[in-house]
Amino acid sequence: MAYITLNVKKLRANYVYLNNLFLKKNIQWSVVTKMLCGNKIFLTELLKFDIPQICDSRVSNLKMIKSINPKIETIYIKPPAKRAIPNIVKYADISMNTEFETIKLLSNEAIKQNKTHKIIIMIELGELREGVMGDHFIDFYESVFKLKNIKVVGIGANLSCLYGVLPNHDKLIQLSLYEQLIEAKFNKHIPYVSGGSSVTIPLIFQKLLPKGINHFRVGETLFLGTDIYNNTKFKKMHSNVFSLFCEIIELTEKPIVPMGEMGTNVEGETFEFDQNDIGETSYRAIIDIGLLDVETDHLELVDKSLDLTGASSDMIVIDLHENKKNYKVGDLIEFKLDYMGILRIINSKYIDKKIINNN
């Protein structure tokens, strides 16, 4: 059976590296765990790092996190759905919000649960995903400050996730100025200016991060060592915390060119083949994973002598060519994964999850 592994030693090294970086800059940061899809095995290992604050976009994931460590502070990082309000107040200490009517419902629910629910109000900085427009944010904050059992603890922004709008010094200065305006006008202390994410980290090294940005939400860079801003990897971080292993379930020498009238495959794709390859053969392996689990664009073969030639719903075909390494049925094929690949694989109930702990 196919399985994905998490290397605890490499993940811990990435965490220590980022934690030291943020400590030097007096920045508080929160680990975004949505990539782990609420998986108890992986979350349990992560929470051993003594992380003070966790972000996630699924209430069920926050529930799992609280079951492992009830004392950890949790943040729900997308505008809450009305039907989820009771559980958000129950399992999220903080939520990110953009709709006043939703915050009113959070207030009412917090009163019912005898809690003070904290919120970060998200501001639109050009990415056109979630965020209150700049023309309205003063009136928005004024209305929210009047609500009972609601405590505003931050102002935030999201960049790069939808259209790829990159953070820069000017945009983050704008966010900092919004925070200063709110504090001055309403005589309120706003602890978090949450303008940082994985894509913002390079601005620290370039000394372009405004001092007012004091809170980061980081997931991808922690788990993959990714420099998202420059589409590369940080040299001092591990990019192979996760590995995928798939078992060969058939290995046969077969023709290179399919035989018969050609139509479309399960994804509606059509194929053309070089007629010069008619009569040629190669060794083809089938592995026990398919499009139900992950799209092949998110997979990278570790063995560069192999080629991924096609996939159906629950099987992928690998071309071994002459099979010089003498692969056989039962052997494992290893893959590297990108962010979306890991997300899909961990979310698949058909893929085993395993820990590599080589401390």
From TrEMBL:
Residues 7-225 form the Alanine racemase N-terminal domain. Gene3D superfamilies: Alanine racemase. Its cofactor is pyridoxal 5'-phosphate. GO terms for molecular function: alanine racemase activity; pyridoxal phosphate binding. Keywords: Isomerase, Pyridoxal phosphate. GO terms for cellular component: cytosol. This is Alanine/ornithine racemase family PLP-dependent enzyme. It comes from Ancylomarina salipaludis.
